[in-house]
Amino acid sequence: DTVLTQSPALAVSPGERVSISCRASEGVNSYMHWYQQKPGQQPKLLIYKASNLASGVPARFSGSGSGTDFTLTIDPVEADDTATYFCQQSWNDPYTFGAGTKLELK
Amino acid sequence: EVQLVESGGGLVQPGRSMKLSCAASGFTFSNYGMAWVRQAPTKGLEWVATISYDGSSTYYRDSVKGRFTISRDNAKSTLYLQMNSLRSEDTATYYCTTPIPTGYFDYWGQGVMVTVSS
Q: Chain B partners of A95 at a C-beta cutoff of 8 Å?
């Protein structure tokens, strides 16, 4: 299975820019997607196919990358962005998710 | 507004069975494939199974093949997951979700907890 590696946690101050990385163990073309999950809630789609903003998602969120290295950027970060962020690939079967990056606000 | 409402979870003993349901509304259910994704406590997400719009094709992760069955009733706009021979490692919150052909999951239900324990 394709393993997606994310850093476990980040802490930033409101107003700053943050980049969350996701590295795939093998190429996934541009088929990388990002989700936000707040405590006690279901995941919410943020970015699909590496760089496409999902409907209703603020333009503060953006995605980039291809192949094996991908980045989710939030600029500027707001207090409401406290959550865990997951990447997911759909190029190789089975579809797999990263373990998540917990974003905390200072 | 798209709504996905799961039900049927709870506590079950190892080796026993449980059936989850997901009632869908706000979209034409019979036009879309559906999927189950699970999340073990304090863990990441894991795709479980997918079914095509008409139920003719189903796909499973290896660890549940032969034990879980995904199905649907388009007349009732309802998705199901029949889980047999449950194991402790199946303990998780199970989410009903809408997979898009390019492979991402668009809408998610609120999830239903399944605990496998004696």
A: 47, 103
Residues of B in contact with A86 (CB under 8 A): 44-45
- pLDDT score, position B57: 97
For B109, which of A42, A86, A99 is closest by C-beta distance? A42
For testing the chain B interface, which of A5, A33, A72, A95 should be mutated: the one with the most B CBs within 10 Å? Answer: A95
Interatomic CA distance for residues A21 and B83, integer angstroms: 35
**A32-37 and A44-48 strand pairing:** antiparallel
pLDDT of residue B42 exceeding 90, the answer is no
> Which of B2, B65, B55, B5 is closest to B30 using CA atoms?
B55
pLDDT digits over B49-108, tens only?
999 999 999 999 999 999 999 999 999 999 999 999 999 999 999 999 999 888 999 999
Write the pLDDT tens digit of every residue in B1-24: 999 999 999 999 999 999 999 999
Of A45, A96, A100, the CB nearest to B105: A45
Is the model's pLDDT at B44 over the cut of 90? no
Rounded Cα distance between B93 and B42, Å, is 10
Q: Which residues of A touch B108 (CB under 8 A)?
A: 42-44
Taking CB atoms and an 8 Å limit, are A99 and B44 in contact across chains?
Answer: yes
Q: A93 Cβ partners below 8 Å, 6+ apart?
A: none
| Residues A90 and A97: beta-carbon distance below 8 Å | no
